[in-house]
Amino acid sequence: MLLEICVFNTATAIAAEKAGADRIELCENYANGGTTPSYGYLKNVREKIGIPVFPMIRPRGGDYFHSSDEIDIIRKDILLCKELGFEGVVFGLLNQDGSIDKENTARLVEAAYPLEVTFHRAFDRCIHPFEALETLIACGCNRILTSGQEPRVTEGLQMVKQLVEKADGRIIIMPGSGLNSSNVATIIATAGVTEVHTSARIRIPSATKFRNEKMPEDFDMDFVDATEIQKIKAQF
C-alpha cells in the first residue's frame, strides 16, 4: 500500500516525507484546485526531498479544456520536470463535451516518458467514466486519481470499486478527496486499491507580526498533519 500526500509548499513536502509519505504530489494554489509549481519551487523540492515527487502540470485554474497554447505550456513544463529529475507528473485534459482529450493526452504521455503519468481529478468531471478509463489506458497513463465522480470518495466508493475491477491491473486507480484515517481502511477493503491519496491538510497561523486590519487577507498557511499521516500509515 502506498500513501501519496498532496502538498502546496516546500515546508509541507519536507514534513510529509518525515511523517512517512511514500510519494508527493506537488502543487501550488490550493484554492484553485492545484496549478503548476514555479521553477524555483520545483528545484527547491527536488533538492530537498528523497521520495518520489509528481508535480501537478496545470497552467491555470478553472475547467480542463485547454487551448493549443496551454497544451504547449503543459508540454514544456513536463519536459522541465524530466530535466529536473522528477519521477512523474500529474495532468488531466478534457474536451468541451466532457470526453477525454485523447490525442493531446497521448502526446503528453509520450513526451513525459519515462516519467509516470497520473491523470488527475479531471476524470471526475468526464461524461462517461468507464469509456474514459479505457481511453486513458490506451493513452498509456499509469494511474487515475478519482473520488468516484463524487465530491468525496466515501460517496463515490462503489464507482471506485467498479473502476478497479474494470481496470483489472491495466492502470492504477488511486482514491482521493475526503480520505482520512477514519475511513481509509474501509476504502481499501471495499475498493481493493493499492494506493491512496490525501492532503492531510491543516492550516497554521502566519508568523507575520503586523497586519493592516483594513486589508482582509487570509495570511494563514497550508500545512500537513503529521499525526494524521502516521495514523493512515498505521492501518496499512
Description:
Helix 6 links the parallel strand 6 and strand 7. The protein has a single domain (2-233), classed as TIM Barrel. It is 36% helix and 17% strand. The model has no long low-confidence stretch (mean pLDDT 97). It is globular and about 55 Å long. The strands form 3 sheets. Strands 3-2-1-8 form a 4-stranded parallel beta sheet, with helices on one face. The chain has a 4-stranded parallel beta sheet with strand order 4-5-6-7, with helices on one face. A two-stranded antiparallel ribbon has the order 9-10. It has helices spanning 10-19, 39-48, 68-84, 102-112, 129-139, 157-167, 184-191, 226-233, and strands at 2-7, 23-26, 53-55, 88-91, 116-119, 143-146, 172-175, 195-198, 201-204, 221-224. By secondary structure, the chain is of the alpha/beta class. The chain has 8 helices and 10 strands. The N and C termini lie close together (6 Å).
Topology (SSEs and partners):
Elements: E1 2-7, H1 10-19, E2 23-26, H2 39-48, E3 53-55, H3 68-84, E4 88-91, H4 102-112, E5 116-119, H5 129-139, E6 143-146, H6 157-167, E7 172-175, H7 184-191, E8 195-198, E9 201-204, E10 221-224, H8 226-233
Parallel strand pairs: 1-2, 1-8, 2-3, 4-5, 5-6, 6-7
Antiparallel strand pairs: 9-10
Rg over C-alpha atoms, rounded to the nearest angstrom = 17 Å
Rounded mean pLDDT is: 97
Strand content: 15-25%
Largest sheet: 4 strands, parallel
Task: Please tell me the CATH architecture by its name.
Answer: Alpha-Beta Barrel
How many strand units? Answer: 10
CATH superfamily membership: Copper homeostasis (CutC) domain
Structural class: alpha/beta
Percentage of helical residues? 25-40%
CATH class, named Alpha Beta
Q: Could you state the order of secondary-structure elements as H and E? A: EHEHEHEHEHEHEHEEEH
- Low-confidence regions: none
